[in-house]
Specification:
Elements: H1 2-10, H2 13-31, H3 37-43, H4 59-62, H5 75-78, H6 121-124, H7 451-454, H8 474-477, E1 487-489, E2 494-495, E3 510-511, E4 519-521
Antiparallel strand pairs: 1-2, 3-4
């Protein structure tokens, strides 16, 4: 290090000036008397040997006015700029013992001795006169001696008080040891918590922490939330402050549990006794910013609509509401009260109590005449097709079965003005169950006579085949009459005529003679309409 600094000073103006003086001295010596060898040896006895450049100096240059006694022996007493050339103006600050650094034999051969320097390190080590701080030197004051010594430059006794930068300018993990991997996340201002005099005695400053509270207060690195702490996020500073932990400014936004986890009547105020039946999710309706400003959410209600909408707690059914059960949600939805999905299952009144043409659509002008309720034929699930019930019809069959409203008589149907129900039944269209009501009709024949057996012209009204005998059996059956079985009397044998037996169901006696006074064989009602055959 000393050699480097000596080489440095050879490049300075003072050594160059000295070299120039020595070059001129050779001409001066040639023109002036200098001590000879004997004088040099004699001078040795004074204790100040004439060595180096002093051998070429005239005696009177040092012994002025011929005075030898008391001549100074120290360099600086002669080399003071008056008696002899002294330190130039740009010489670094030092003592006046030139020999501490310079040699008599060669002034420019300098052995630098920092002990002779009287100025600060920076007065030379300013990057111009001598090497200064390198660009990578830590930010510090210019008192090199705070850390370095001249005997061993690299053996540094570090003094933090001389550092001008902050800690991280050195303690960055490159220049000097930085924060360990386990260090809590903080700013790089080490001195917020640490001291250079004792690194492990920490005065913790939360303001220097850059991570969230939970990074440390997790129950491992530092105390965390207690087991009885409310369910919340791990952002402690939402409610707590580092200056006073117990002074809590509660922030509901940090709570991770639902309201009821606290507002259960034990940890915090819960629902009052008069609260409507709901789930325990308070936030469905309430806000933490203003409890009484409610945005009601029917989804949170656990009771039926009528529990509240009873006309007392909340608006109930109005006077003109259709007769129904109290299950409002059968038809209504909470998102849009007037958007009704009607459910007939909830109606307690009859169909016509609504479907009367005023409250709701009633029977149309073309509807069949009926006194029955709508649900006698129709269902609320599907209005069409209808399950028709003829029992509720008040009109005649032909009012519907006219070939337009409903199926009517086909072209081949028996010509009649009678209503369908005179022959047919709604439960089973066949067989035909016609009952003659005319007084001329003797009654239904047991032989299974078909309608067309008599009504040969397919007409309801027919002419008597044997009109002279109407309304007796012969009017139809005169052509069927056989005289042989119908003896009237004996002696002589005579047979009845059709005209005499026109009522087949009447008497048909056999007499003994033509006087018709004595009955030989009585025959009465031998033929009956109910018989299955003629005999």
């Amino acid at each position: 290090m000393g050699r480097a600094r000596a080489n440095h000073y050879r490049r300075q103006p003072f050594p160059l000036l000295f070299i120039g003086l020595c070059w001129l001295m050779q001409f001066f010596i040639a023109a002036h008397a200098m001590p000879d060898l004997a004088e040099v040896e004699e001078h040795l006895k004074t204790g100040f040997p004439l060595e180096g450049a002093h051998r070429f100096v005239e005696c009177e240059d040092c012994h002025m006015n011929g005075v030898f006694e008391g001549t100074p022996r120290q360099c600086g007493l002669c080399h003071n700029g008056v008696s002899a050339p002294g330190k130039p103006p740009d010489h670094f600050l030092s003592q006046n013992n030139c020999s501490d650094c310079h040699a008599l034999q060669s002034w420019t051969q300098v052995r630098f001795d920092h002990f002779s320097a009287t100025g600060t390190c920076m007065s030379c080590h300013d990057g111009r006169r001598a090497t200064g701080k390198s660009p990578t030197h830590i930010q510090s004051s210019n008192n090199c001696g705070d850390c370095h010594s001249t005997v061993g430059w690299s053996a540094v006794r570090f003094d933090h008080s001389g550092v001008a930068g902050n800690c991280v300018s050195c303690h960055n993990g490159t220049t000097a040891q930085g924060k360990s991997a386990l260090h809590m996340p903080t700013t790089n201002i080490c001195e917020d918590c640490h001291r250079t005099t004792s690194w492990l005695i920490v005065r913790f400053d939360h303001a220097a922490a850059t991570a969230s509270c939970f990074t440390c207060h997790n129950g491992t690195t530092a105390p965390g939330k207690t087991p009885t702490h409310i369910a919340s996020s791990n952002t402690c500073d939402d409610c707590h402050v580092t200056s006073n932990w117990a002074n809590v400014s509660f922030d509901h936004a940090s709570v991770t549990g639902n309201c009821f986890s606290c507002h259960n009547g034990a940890t915090a105020v819960g629902k009052p006794a008069t609260h409507m039946p709901t789930t325990n999710i308070c936030e469905d309706c309430h806000l933490t910013s203003t409890w009484t400003s409610i945005r009601f959410d029917h989804a949170a209600t656990t009771a039926s609509c009528f529990t509240c909408h009873n006309g007392t707690t909340a608006a109930g059914k109005h006077a003109t509401h259709i007769a129904s059960v109290n299950m409002c949600d059968d038809c209504h939805v909470t998102s849009s009260w007037t958007n009704v999905r009607f459910d007939h299952g909830a109606v307690t009144g009859s169909c016509s109590s609504c479907h009367n043409g005023t409250t709701a659509t009633g029977k149309g002008p073309l509807h069949i005449a009926t006194t029955g309720e709508c649900d006698a034929c129709h269902t609320t699930l599907a209005w069409i097709p209808a399950t028709f019930d003829h029992d509720t019809i008040t009109g005649s069959c032909s009012s519907c079965h006219n070939g337009s409203t409903a199926t009517g008589k086909p072209p081949s149907h028996f010509v009649t003005s009678l209503q369908c129900g005179d022959c047919h039944r709604t439960t089973a269209w066949l067989p035909i169950l016609f009952s003659h009501t005319s007084p001329s009709y003797p009654g239904d024949h047991g032989s299974g006579v078909g309608c067309t057996d008599c009504h040969t012209t397919n007409s309801q009204t027919i002419a008597w085949q044997f009109g002279a005998y109407q309304p007796d059996c012969a009017a139809c059956h005169a052509g069927d009459y056989r005289s042989d079985p119908h003896k009237k009397h004996e002696n002589p044998d005579v047979r009845y005529t059709v005209a005499e037996l026109r009522d087949c169901t009447g008497s048909c006696h056999i007499y003994t003679d033509s006087s018709l006074t004595t009955i030989k064989e009585r025959r009465n009602s031998n033929h009956r309409v109910s018989d299955r055959d003629w005999d």
